[in-house]
Amino acid sequence: MNKDIEQKWILAGNITAKALQRGVVLVKEGARVFDIAQAIEAEIKQLGGKIAFPVNISINEMSAHYTPVFNDKTVIKAEDYVKIDVGAHVDGYIGDTAVTIRPAGKDNLIECSEKMLEAALKIVKPGIRVSEIGQVIEETAKKYGFNPVRNLTGHSLEQYNLHAGLTVPNVETFTREKLEDGQVIAIEPFCTVGTGHVKDSGQAQIFMWLSDSSIRSPEGRKILDLGKNQFTALPFAKRWITGMSTIKMDMALKQLVAARAMHQFLPLKEISDKPVAQTEHTVIVRDKPIITTKL
Fold this sequence. Notes:
single chain, alpha+beta, Creatine Amidinohydrolase, Arc Repressor Mutant, subunit A, 2 domains, 5-stranded antiparallel sheet, 3-stranded antiparallel sheet, 17 strands, 24% strand, globular
């Protein structure tokens, strides 16, 4: 990795971290998730970055992939576990970070997710097996009396590629894959008092371009063009699409997903309906790792 590219990773991480903090201060009882998402996404642009994926604001048992619909009326309650997951990029080099906030006050579940990440970051270096990262994450969760979420993982990142192939598990596994010098990864432990598995739930509000399609509808062609070009084949939100009715938009997206021209990200819910906490940082793998999303 040359110095110019490294600096873009670092700048993207810095923008992402600052945008996340803009959202954190807005998480209060009675606040609307739509307003928080809008503020974070505006902050990314104000800081000179571009949005790498729609802000995820997943509450309680909803673990990931929930982004508000346009003018979403959902409001935050004092006891809610509010997971904010933010991504920004600079020329396709991505920062990805997340925290969990509870207006009533931080508790052991949130502390556990923070300590899981902290333990993982301590052992990141070239040559370490990703299974060892999963092992320390799982061991930390067990010490707190919680379960890691087994089927949510961290991931490697590349330019304009949010999930670049390497999986960073949150439990011990048998994989022998190792981290490489200069690799960029997002480590994101999730913990819960529940069973520790998530399932698809609800309707997708996040989509991503996969390939061109011969879809005939003008709405479908417009969405394809937006996904491929304006959103640079990174995930985008339905609420970002303008100039068409909701019915036509939904029909076009359904056709595009069926044609495998678009991927949909369904909201993910903990299967026993127990709250989940998440913490995440992006890291450049070095002998002395660079945590790009740490202010």
